[in-house]
Each structure stands twice: as C-alpha cells, then as structure tokens.
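Team,

Forwarding the record for the chain on the shared tracking sheet. I've put the sequence and predicted structure together so nobody has to dig through attachments.
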Amino acid sequence: MDKPIDKAVADLGRDIGEYIRQQRNTAKISLRQLAKLAGVSNPYLSQIERGLRKPSAEILQQIAKGLRISAEALYVEAGILEQREGGALADAIVTAPELTERQKQVLLDVYESFRRENAAADHRAPAAPNQPAATNQSEE
C-alpha cells in the first residue's frame, strides 16, 4: 500500500523539478547561475530538476527568488498550496506587498469581470476547426 504513496511523492518531485527547469529555461538562466542566485549547490539543484530530490518550502522560496517568480507559484506546483481561483495572477495580486487591501480587491474584481466576460464570449463563439486546411502541400 505504500507504493502508490511513494510514487505520488516521486511524481510531485519530478513535476516541481520539470517546472523549475521550464522556468529557468524561459528566463534563460543556466543551472549554475540559478544555483548561485538561490544559494544552493549546483548538484542539489540538478537533483531537484531531475526529480531525485523534493525541495523544502524554504529552498523553493530561494529558487523562486532566483527565478524572479512568486514562491506561491512554486508552492502550488509542489503541492504545498492549492491554487486559488483566478490562478497565478490572482495569487500575485493577493501577495503584492506594495498594494493596499483595497487596491488588491479592486484589481481582483476587474480581473474576475474580464474572466467572466471571456468565458461568456467563449460559450457564444462558434467552434473553430482544429487545423486550417492546407493550401500548399508538397508533391511526392
């Protein structure tokens, strides 16, 4: 019975590692650079990215700082926190220290109104074909 739990923990480690690698590649930061920015060893970060180690919340916070993303985003990916309705943008608004509570609420209200508007528009729009018809096919 421990096998499924062990596999789930291993999958979480692999998922967070893949997410960190994607974020690092998107930011065009080398493994060595991120390790230095996060204050962790190069081999340890490599093990995290390969899913061999599951980082603590503190290490995730350091990695997030190095990647210049919210720690909450990493916590959600690692399964430490549940994602709020509204996703990463709502999380960023809620955790922004430079905003007052009133400003946060106004931004969340505006964001939610845009989401509702877009969802309603999606329901009204006719379904688009998955692939456009090919007009220039090579001859074989």
